[in-house]
Amino acid sequence: MNNKIKNEATDNLFKCILTMNTVEECYKLFEDLCTVHEIQAIAQRMQVAEMLDRKCTYIEIAEKTGASTATISRVNRALTYGSDGYKLAIDRVREQKEAEEKKE
């Protein structure tokens, strides 16, 4: 965990995020917290991470997401050497999708 960001205010922010129960509630919170550009940038990074996890090429990722190679490289570095947050989120969303598909 990065001690540069860990503090009481950040803990509180994450606790607030964890109280959101639906995607719609997340939209409401993030629209108040962030600019449209910030939300789009975060969403783009997550999309890049998902595509890297599926072994897509930088060219495919850049074409589909509009992300720069610098952004793709930064996300790839986080996937490889980071604290596994991207991987945790990707795996959990994949598990949710699989569980929902089994219900159908």
Question: What would a concise description of this structure say?
Answer:
Helix 3 (36-53) packs across helix 5.
Annotation field: number of helices: 6
Radius of gyration: 15 Å
**End-to-end C-alpha gap:** 38 Å
- General shape: globular
The count of strands amounts to 0
Structural class: mainly alpha
Largest sheet: none
> Can you write the helix and strand succession as a string?
HHHHHH
List keywords for this structure.
104 residues, mainly alpha
Report on the architecture of this protein.
The protein has 104 residues and is mostly helical. 77% of the residues lie in helices and 0% in strands. Helix 3 runs antiparallel to helix 4 and helix 3 packs across helix 5. It is globular and about 40 Å long. The termini are far apart. The model has no long low-confidence stretch (mean pLDDT 96).
Strands, helices and their partners?
Blueprint: H1 8-18, H2 23-33, H3 36-53, H4 58-65, H5 69-81, H6 85-103
Helix pairs in contact: 3-4, 3-5
